[in-house]
Amino acid sequence: MFKLPAISFGTFQIAPNQTRAAVTAALQSGYRAVDTAYSYKNEAAVGQAIRQAGLTRDRVFVTSKAYINQLGFRETSAAIDQSLAALGLDYLDLYLIHMPFGDYYGAYRALLAAKKAGKVRAIGVANFDPARLADLGHHFGELPAVDQVEHHPFYQRSAEIAAIRKLGVTPQAWAPLAEGRHQLFTNSQLTAIAQAHGKTVAQVVLKWHQQLGLPLVVKSLSPNHLKDNLALDDFRLTALEMATIAKLDLGRPSLLDINSVAEVDRLYDYLDHPVVTTLAD
User: Fold this and answer.
1) Phi, psi of 122 (to 5 degrees)
2) What's the pLDDT score for residue 210?
3) In degrees to the nearest 10, what's the CA dihedral of 76, 165, 235, 192?
4) For residue 270, what pLDDT is reported?
5) Are 215 and 2 in contact (CB under 8 A)?
6) Which residues contact 207 (CB under 8 A, 6 or more apart)?
7) How do the domains of the chain map onto residue ranges?
8) Which residues of the chain fall short of a pLDDT of 50?
9) Do the beta carbons of residue 65 and residue 97 sit within 8 Å?
């Protein structure tokens, strides 16, 4: 049965020339799952760190993703091979469609084929809402294993998370610390909870995710923070503390709004070249 690691080390916005050292430090600190993507432009450095870590392949869970310009059956099939080559790995534990834009139907067919061929162990998506997930299930007869979504105290999307789970898909939180937005690290409620437990605000927020049953992707370049982010087993938030954090919800995304035209334009502008998807299989 597929099981997603509770905590993955994220590599978004880590420069390629810093990535190998960052991933090496994470693995040395005890992380056993690493999350990257084609659009992060650091897959090669991630792969170098993993191969040089002295760990057998089955002990490191590796996730990568296809971006908008890589979507389509042929394009995504090639993208999977490209990621495997860049990482220097024989298979990926999890491969995601990064955004719900472009030809993600063709891309999903490619993911299913790659899974059948053994190139990926599990397939998933990122930033899909429950209706899009349900559509994939009806169209292909197989739902993704994972939906990686923005989730933090200021965007809790409880109804969506429940709907994703009802479909049998595992929601995974990206940006669990909101990238520090909304003064998360100095928030008075979170600070009070942290002081009550002798923990950091980051540890409190990650523990909150853990108690909600949400696997997460978290990034840090600080050796101390890397270790702190894994030190979550010696305390538990009370029901009152969980309720206090629940009240911080603003009910809107802070980092990615897939229903915003301006946001869609921004995501396409991020590309190095225009999207050109072939029509033929």
Assistant:
1) -145, 155
2) 98
3) 90
4) 74
5) no
6) 199, 232, 235, 236, 237
7) 7-269
8) 273-281
9) yes
Q: Which CATH architecture has domain 7-269?
A: Alpha-Beta Barrel (3.20)
**What's the pLDDT tens digit per position in 76-111?**
999 999 999 999 999 999 999 999 999 999 999 999
pLDDT of residue 240: 98
Rg of the Cα trace of the chain?
18
CA distance 227 to 30: 8
**What gap in Å lies between CA 68 and CA 267, rounded to an integer?**
8
Q: Which two tokens stand for residue 99?
A: 């955004």
First-to-last C-alpha distance (Å) of the chain: 31
- Give the active site residues: 40
pLDDT at 272: 59
Under a CB-based contact definition with an 8 Å cutoff, are residues 109 and 77 in contact?
A: no
The whole model's pTM is what?
0.94
Tokens at residue 271, please? 């590309």
Residue type (1 letter), 86: A
Q: What is the pLDDT of residue 10?
A: 98
The 3-state secondary structure of the chain, one letter per residue: CCCCCCEEEECCCCCHHHHHHHHHHHHHHCCCEEECCHHHCCHHHHHHHHHCCCCCHHHCEEEEEECHHHCCHHHHHHHHHHHHHHHCCCCEEEEEECCCCCCHHHHHHHHHHHHHHCCEEEEEEECCCHHHHHHHHHHHCCCCCEEEEECECCECCHHHHHHHHHCCCEEEEECCCHHHHHHHHHCHHHHHHHHHHCCCHHHHHHHHHHHCCCCEEECCCCHHHHHHCCCCCCCCCCHHHHHHHHCCCCCCCCCCCCCCHHHHHHHHHCCCCCCCCCCCC
